[in-house]
Design a protein that fits this description.
This protein has about 200 residues and is an alpha/beta fold. Helices cover about 20% and strands about 35% of the residues. It contains 1 helix and 15 strands. It has a 6-stranded mixed beta sheet.
Length: about 200
């Protein structure tokens, strides 16, 4: 059996050492007991927006900010609140503009729609890029181009040249292997997408 003997040595308190405050620090005392240090002129609850320093007489303590500086700080806070509100309002305005633009686009589309023999046709006299939901396009002006969308989505689009001139039909996905085909007067073509290209049927 192993016996361990401990000897506790009591060390004397250094009563000849002290902590003394100076300048802006007051308090202190011998290290034989707890000591307290604090700022000269300190208070438990300084007024809001106060700073520690000296007054006109050089007395240390918590000083109230000059009125102009306090007003400036309050103004900065209000400006930040206002900037946040303006930013939120701007985002709402942009959203509203996008919604309005979408509605205007839909209204324009509706104005160009007409039903013939039970088929809804989109009439155009200008170059037109076919949008989703439009499957029949009637060109009412010669020399314009009807742009078919990507053939990635399987769908069919019929284009009719209702003029006595030439109308072009094009697509980046190609139409029967070419980028652009031309419709003669009163000619119509039906293009079917197979997820890769457009095929004339």
């Amino acid at each position: 059996m192993l016996w361990v003997m401990l000897r506790i040595v009591s060390r004397p308190v250094c009563d000849n050492r002290k902590v003394q405050g100076r300048n802006s620090i007051s308090g202190g005392g011998a290290l034989t007991a707890d000591v307290t240090l604090q700022l000269r002129g300190d208070v438990s609850a300084p007024v809001p927006l106060a700073y520690y320093g000296t007054d006109a007489k050089g007395e240390r303590g918590w000083q109230e900010l000059p009125e102009n500086i306090a007003n400036l700080m309050a103004l900065e806070v209000r400006v930040k609140v206002l900037e946040t509100a303006v930013s939120a309002l701007t985002a709402r305005v942009v959203t509203a503009e996008n919604v309005l633009g979408d509605h205007e686009s839909r209204i324009e589309t509706l104005e160009n729609l007409s039903v013939m023999d039970g088929v809804v046709w989109f009439y155009t006299s200008l170059n037109y890029a076919v949008t989703p939901g439009i499957n029949h396009v009637r060109a009412n002006a010669a020399g314009i181009t009807i742009e078919l969308p990507s053939a990635a989505a399987i769908r069919s689009i019929t284009v009719k040249n209702a003029t006595s001139g030439i109308v072009a039909v094009s697509s980046v996905s190609l139409i029967d292997g070419v980028g652009t085909i031309f419709l003669a007067a009163n000619e119509a073509v039906k293009c079917v997408a197979d997820a890769t290209t457009w095929n004339i049927t």
